[in-house]
Amino acid sequence: MSANSPLKPEDCNCFMVRSAARHVTQLYDQFLAPVELHVTQFSILAKLKRLGSMTINALAKAMVMDRTTLGRNVLPLERDGLIKIEVSASDGRAKELHLTKAGEKRLLAGREAWTQAQARFEDRFGAERAADFRAILRAVVASNFATELNN
């Protein structure tokens, strides 16, 4: 594409990735609504369950999220008693996130809804295409495009 080509959002990689992300997020949020979770919150709980307690910065990096965006998603989880935020024992300046028993219970309740959303996506998109799609997206995440700009 040349610099003189007409600008079309559907030709912009970023626009299309973000559009797809919003579309898929809406699907998962619809399935998770009965258990009072958004897909990002479900993912936070699942990541804490799998990796254990961690600092906000470490979780943000693991989830490829901006720290402030993660912070906004964490507040309702803390308010609802699904996670606990404590000062890190090893670094008094850092805050550590801990999954609570209530959080584990909500995660378990959300698991069935998440499984249904996964099945709906794969039913409509195709299981093989969905697996290929995830592999491509993992490669995009691993590429570190933005990091290269800062070097």
Question: What this model shows, in words?
Answer:
The chain has a 3-stranded antiparallel β-sheet with strand order 1-3-2. The chain contains 7 helices and 3 strands, in the order ααβααββααα. It has 151 residues and is mainly α. A hairpin with a 7-residue loop joins β2 (83-87) and β3. The protein is globular, with a radius of gyration of 18 Å.
Query: Percent helix among the residues?
Result: 55-70%
| Average pLDDT level | 91
N/C terminus separation:
26 Å
Numbering strands along the chain, what is their spatial order in the largest sheet? Answer: 1-3-2
Task: Note poorly predicted spans.
Answer: none
How many strands in all? 3
Label the structural class.
mainly alpha
Q: Main beta sheet: strand number and arrangement?
A: 3 strands, antiparallel
Radius of gyration: 18 Å
Shape: globular
**What's the helix count?**
7
Order of helices and strands: HHEHHEEHHH
The protein's oligomeric status is single chain
Beta-strand fraction estimate = 5-15%
Question: How would you concisely characterize the structure shown here?
Answer:
By secondary structure, this protein is mainly alpha-helical. The chain is 66% helix and 8% strand.
